[in-house]
Amino acid sequence: MEPKWLEWAKQLQAISQAGLTYSKDVYDLERFEMIREMSVEMMAQHTGADETVILDLFANETGYATPKVDIRAVVFKEDKLLMVRETTDGDWSLPGGWGDIGLSPGEVAVKEAKEESGFDVKAVKLLGVLDKKCHPHPPSPYHVYKIFILCDIIGGQPEEGIETSAVGFFAEDELPTLSVARNTESQIRMMFWHLYNQGEDVFFD
Questions:
Q1: What is the DSSP track for 102-158?
Q2: Phi then psi for 64, rounded to 5 degrees?
Q3: Which of 41, 130, 162, 177 is buried most deeply by CB count within 10 Å?
């Protein structure tokens, strides 16, 4: 589902990043810088974003290029799904964010649920590992794996966080406007499918 230009831009970025990390020859380094500039220009042309902003995103990445990991807490209460309203776009998502160094995926899900919704939760089960390129998200400069972890509420109360402006529970037939950069409708329906079909296999890709 990912457009070909985005696939090429990210591949060029990965090649240039590895080359800039491991190459020693000054001429090779110059060529890898040119490849990075090409990937930045491709992203800018197709997204309308400023090239300096895109370059800053890429420049933050060093070493061998690997996918980033986005972890989402899936929390049900009376057959309704916990969601938070994002301050960045005003739309709704599962509590979550980038994986943190030093924390396991389950620990990240617990932390993000507390910070974004106010609830204390316990990580219970892995529901899915999805490649963002295979789902209808908007274009992203990063290759991202999304991990969905079922969690149970063990305490706390609804409370907005630094990055969220509201907390709510939603039935499958009353979903709010979704923050599709973070989660798509099809992914949310996957989570409800797991609710109704407990014990089924983990989703992947």
A1: T--HHHHHHHHHHHHH-EEEEEEEEEEEEEGGGTTPPP-SS-EEEEEEEEEEEEE--
A2: -70, 130
A3: 130
One-letter amino acid for residue 100 of the chain: D
Q: Which residue has 């776009």 as its token pair?
A: 89
For residue 66, the tally of other CB atoms under 10 A from its CB is 11
Distance (Å, whole) CA 133 – CA 61: 19
φ/ψ of residue 172, rounded to 5: -65, -30
**Cα–Cα dist 116/95, whole Å:** 6
pLDDT tens by residue, 129-178: 999 999 999 988 889 999 999 999 999 999 999 999 999 999 999 999 99
CA angle 204, 119, 176 (to 5 degrees): 60
pTM: 0.81
Q: Which alpha helices (H) appear in the chain, and where do they start and end?
A: 4-22, 26-47, 51-59, 105-117, 185-196
Using an 8 Å Cβ cutoff, are 22 and 155 in contact?
no
Length of the chain, please?
A: 205
CB 163 within 8 A of CB 116: yes
CA distance 57 to 10: 12
The whole-number pLDDT of residue 59 equals 66
Task: State how beta strands 80-86 and 68-77 pair.
Answer: antiparallel
